[in-house]
C-alpha cells in the first residue's frame, strides 16, 4: 500500500484525483455537522493534494438514507479550505463542475449512497465513478471495511494510493495488534457475538483485557448474576473467556431503576427492575493500576450508556489515560465524542482512530477490503 506522500507534487499537478473520504458525520437538530472530528482528520490529505496542484474530487457517503446530503459536510470543510459542493453525483451538473476545475480546486460530490449501486458494489457504477479521475486515493478508513463500489471497485480502474489518514490508521493499529508489554485493552459496546473473535485475540495479545459497556452485562449473565432489564446479547461468553486470568470485569455498576433513579451497586445486588447503565467508582479505582503500569493502551467503546448521559466514568478513564506515558490507540465514535466532551486534551490521548467497526475488524484481520484493494 503506497501513500500519496511517497510521490512528488509533479505526479499530481493538473491530474484529476478522486479522494474517497470518510465524512459520514452526525448532524445536529438544525442540520449542521455535530462532530467535526472526521472533518478535521480529512484535511491533511486534501491540503497535500491542493498544494500539489491536483484537481481533487471528494466522494463520500453520509447517513443511511439515500436522501441525506453532503451539503452540511461542505459547509464544515469550507472552514478549512475552499470547497465547491455539487448536489449531484453522476449527472450533467457533476460533470460540468468537474470539467471547470483548475489546478488546486476541490470539488465535493453528492452522497454516494444516494445511488443503491454503491453499497451493491456494482461494477458499472464503479466505472462511472472512476471516469471522473486519473488517480484514486482512499482516505476513508472508517468505511474501508465495506466492500462498496467506491472502496473496492474504483481501484480496479485507476492507479490507487492511500491517503495520509489511511496510512496513519494502518500504522498505529498495526502497533495495537502486537502491543508493547505490559499492555491493557478496554473494550466496550454491545453485541458479544460480533466482538467474540476480537476478545479472544486480545486475551492472547494483551496482559489484561477490561470488558465494559453492555458486553459486561453479558459476562454477568453468563456468570449467573442478576442483570434486571439490562441489554443482553443472544450469545454469551464462555467460561474460557471470563475465567481467563487476563480478563478484567467491573467490580461495581451504576443501575437505573424503573423510576429513572440511578445508584451504584455490586453486580450481585442488581434488582429485577434495574437496568445497568454504567460502571461505578470502585471499578475505575480497580483498573487504574493497569492504566498506570501499561506501556500500551487500546480503548474502544465507552463504559456506559453515553447517549443517555452516563459518561462520567468514561471521562474518568480518559483522565487516567491522559496521565499515562503509554502508547495509546483509542477509537469508536461514541468513545471519541465522550472524550471530546470530557475536556481532556486530545494531544495527551495518543492516536485517535476515525474507525469504529473498521478499527475492530482491522485488529482481528490485519487488513480490510479497502486496504486489500489498494494492493
Outline:
The chain has 375 residues and is an alpha/beta fold. It has helices spanning 37-51, 71-77, 92-99, 123-130, 149-153, 164-177, 192-205, 214-222, 239-242, 281-293, 312-323, 333-342, 357-365, 369-374, and strands at 16-21, 55-59, 84-85, 106-108, 135-139, 160-162, 183-187, 208-211, 247-248, 253-256, 262-265, 275-279, 296-300, 327-331, 351-352. The strands form three sheets. It has a six-stranded parallel sheet.
Mean pLDDT: 96
What radius of gyration results from the CA coordinates? 22 Å
- Across the major sheet, the strand order is 3-4-2-1-5-6
Summarize the biggest pleated sheet. Answer: 6 strands, parallel
Number of strands: 15
What's the structural domain tally? 2
Question: Class of the largest domain in CATH?
Answer: Alpha Beta
Name the poorly predicted regions: none
- Any guess at the CATH architecture of the largest domain? 3-Layer(aba) Sandwich
In percent, how helical is the residue content?
A: 25-40%
Name given to the CATH homologous superfamily of the largest domain = Phosphoglycerate kinase, N-terminal domain
Apparent shape: elongated
What fraction of the residues are assigned to beta strands by DSSP? 15-25%
CATH topology of the largest domain: Rossmann fold
Termini gap: 5 Å
Q: What is the string of SSEs from the N terminus onward?
A: EHEHEHEHEHEHEHEHHEEEEHEHEHEHH
The helix tally amounts to: 14
SS-derived structural category:
alpha/beta
Describe this protein's structure.
This protein is an alpha/beta fold and 375 residues long. The protein has 2 domains: 4-166, Rossmann fold (3-Layer(aba) Sandwich); 178-364, Phosphoglycerate kinase, N-terminal domain (Rossmann fold, 3-Layer(aba) Sandwich), CATH 3.40.50.1260. 36% of the residues lie in helices and 16% in strands. The strands form 3 sheets. A 6-stranded parallel sheet has the order 3-4-2-1-5-6. A 6-stranded parallel sheet has the order 9-8-7-13-14-15, sandwiched between helices. β5, α5 and β6 (160-162) form a beta-alpha-beta unit. 48% of the residues are buried. The model has no long low-confidence stretch (mean pLDDT 96).
Amino acid at each position: 500500500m503506497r501513500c500519496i506522500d511517497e510521490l512528488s507534487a509533479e505526479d499530481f499537478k493538473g491530474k484529476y484525483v478522486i479522494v474517497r473520504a470518510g465524512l459520514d458525520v452526525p448532524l445536529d437538530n438544525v442540520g449542521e455537522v455535530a462532530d467535526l472530528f472526521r472533518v478535521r482528520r480529512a484535511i491533511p490529505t486534501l491540503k497535500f493534494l491542493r498544494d500539489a496542484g491536483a484537481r481533487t474530487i471528494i466522494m463520500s457517503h453520509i447517513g443511511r438514507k439515500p436522501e441525506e446530503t453532503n451539503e452540511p459536510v461542505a459547509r464544515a470543510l469550507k472552514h478549512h479550505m475552499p470547497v465547491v459542493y455539487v448536489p449531484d453525483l453522476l449527472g450533467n451538473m457533476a460533470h460540468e463542475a468537474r470539467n471547470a476545475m483548475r489546478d488546486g480546486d476541490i470539488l465535493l460530490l453528492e452522497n454516494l449512497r444516494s445511488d443503491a449501486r454503491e453499497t451493491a458494489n456494482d461494477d458499472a457504477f464503479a466505472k462511472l465513478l472512476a471516469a471522473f479521475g486519473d488517480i484514486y486515493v482512499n482516505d476513508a478508513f472508517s468505511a474501508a471495511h465495506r466492500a462498496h463500489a467506491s472502496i473496492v471497485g474504483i481501484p480496479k480502474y485507476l492507479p490507487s494510493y492511500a491517503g495520509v489518514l489511511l496510512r496513519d490508521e494502518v500504522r498505529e493499529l498495526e502497533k495495537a495488534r502486537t502491543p508493547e508489554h505490559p499492555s491493557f485493552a478496554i473494550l466496550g459496546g454491545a453485541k458479544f457475538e460480533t466482538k467474540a473473535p476480537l476478545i479472544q485475540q486480545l486475551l492472547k495479545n494483551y496482559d489484561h483485557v477490561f470488558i465494559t459497556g453492555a458486553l459486561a452485562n453479558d459476562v454477568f449473565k453468563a456468570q449467573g448474576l442478576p442483570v434486571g432489564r439490562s441489554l443482553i446479547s443472544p450469545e454469551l461468553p464462555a467460561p474460557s473467556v471470563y475465567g481467563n486470568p487476563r480478563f478484567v470485569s467491573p467490580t461495581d455498576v451504576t443501575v437505573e431503576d424503573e423510576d429513572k433513579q440511578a445508584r451504584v451497586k455490586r453486580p450481585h445486588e442488581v434488582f429485577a427492575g434495574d437496568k445497568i447503565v454504567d460502571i461505578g467508582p470502585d471499578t475505575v479505582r480497580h483498573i487504574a493500576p493497569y492504566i498506570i503500569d501499561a506501556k500500551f493502551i487500546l480503548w474502544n467503546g465507552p463504559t456506559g450508556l453515553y447517549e443517555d448521559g452516563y459518561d462520567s466514568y468514561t471521562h474518568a478513564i480518559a483522565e487516567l489515560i491522559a496521565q499515562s506515558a503509554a502508547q495509546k490507540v483509542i477509537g469508536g465514535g461514541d468513545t471519541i465524542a465522550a472524550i471530546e466532551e470530557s475536556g481532556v486534551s486530545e494531544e495527551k490521548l495518543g492516536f485517535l482512530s476515525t474507525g469504529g467497526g473498521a478499527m475492530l475488524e482491522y485488529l482481528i484481520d490485519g487488513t480490510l477490503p479497502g486496504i486489500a484493494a489498494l494492493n
